[in-house]
Amino acid sequence: MSTPHYVTIGQGQLRVWRSGSGPDLLVLPGLIAAASTRADQLARALPGWTVTALDLPGTGGSGGVWADDIAGLARIIAEAASTLGLPPCPLLAFDLAAPLAVALRDSGPNWQPDAILLADSTVAEGWAERGLTPAPLAPRDDGTHLAVLWAHLRDAHVLEPRDARHPAARGAPLPDAAALDAMLRTAAAAPHRYEALWSLCLDAMPRLPGQSGILRFEDLQEAAGVLSVMASGRSDARALPPTQPFADPLRVWHDYADTPQGRVHLRRAGRGRPLLALQSAPGSSKPLLPLLHGLAPGWEIIAPDYLGNGESDKPDRSVDIGMLAEDALAVADALGLDRFDLWGTHTGALVALELTVRHPDRVGRAVLEAPVLIPPDFSADILTHYFPPLVADRWGLHLLQAWNMRRDMFLFWPWYRQERAAARAIGVPDAAVLHDWTMGLLASGAHYDRSYRAAFHYDTRARLPRLTRPALICAGPADMLVEGLAEAERLAPAGTEVTPTPATVWYPGQAPAAVEATIARYAAFLGGDTAADSHRMS
């Protein structure tokens, strides 16, 4: 399996996927297969090379960087290659990435390939001849833009490039549902940029036939033979440098931490006392961005995606809250954090609670937002009905399932109890926000339910009285778990603060003044005297 890594350049961050061993080969994966899929494919097809496959600008983990023309996009890629420390090396580009590969040759002094190889360029030329472009991909309230994108990607693999009425009888093996799902999530990271990238590359295809010094291949076996000759005399690839933060400490950046259980994706911001921010299940930590922006001036905030969720690894294991707490501690160990504060919401509140109970010597202060305290029969009902299987389907049927599950979570509590009495007052967010929440769920895939189930198996009532560190237990008025505050106040040890807050800051549509006041409440508590805390609680 390929390993993901982020590189920070002037404009933002790009994500790369690395596999194999030997000299360097830079890969532009094209616009119908994810970089992760290409890296895994090439590790098998091109042994003897270290493959570095790039999420193209505007897609996947590179969705935040962009330029409005081919030359500008090539300069971004060149800066990333230079920052990664790649030497001049062969560049292998698939389908519509061909114009980007050619432009890299003229991108300037930062970095240039010493050979250009194009795969599936005749396929891309066929798309250009018939003017193939994706239908509009702007997020829709009903989620059908995801089905449109899936159909575009699947048809690009299945149909003759020059004749959309017939299936292609030749070419690379067709992707399975998991590979299509990986590419959909790559393209859907920033749908408007994927559309623009497709159009820019498609428009540049007719200018390729006159280019000299370019090797073209229609199958990887032929390319492997040529590359085996090129490998002679080249040095093995060096390890990639650590990911660097932005110069602006308040700007959120992406990183990974390697732990014994797997590679954990992180969102990071700020400088100061470290704070682990632990998400609600079942998606990623992306909804916590308002928290990161709000607390970054005073803390170094690290928000991991749980293993099995978001962009973190997906180990095949059963999960409980104790395991998630040990995973969070492993992240702190990997980052060299001897002592840290905690902030957790919903599932994350339970993880923070358990981590504090197990390892009080590592924790300063903890904010526990809306820990799960519901009647046992309600927990049993949720465990029975809340978590239907979510598995990538060859026709993309799972996409509308994920969209409507996420949407109904804003309409009903619990989402499957679709009746008037279960209606929520929080309101459905706009399509763009719901799109991001759905992408987090899809990134978790078939593992989405494991951390979520753990929250409803956890015995909060037995663990809460065992707190020995200063804690703030809170919830906003729109939180479906806010009623648990009354029981939390009865259970929590003396000295624990239990209070409602004006907002749940990671919910969409919260009033800005309420969010600001809630962030200030967190900061006031977390900024308490930790030295006095240690003396008092020891």
UniProtKB/TrEMBL annotation:
GO cellular component entries: membrane
Gene3D superfamilies, sorted: alpha/beta hydrolase
Keyword Hydrolase: yes
Full protein name: Alpha/beta hydrolase
Domain of life the protein comes from: Bacteria
PANTHER family: HYDROLASE, PUTATIVE (AFU_ORTHOLOGUE AFUA_2G14860)-RELATED, MONOACYLGLYCEROL LIPASE
Domain AB hydrolase-1, chain residue ranges per copy: 274-381
Organism: Azospirillum ramasamyi
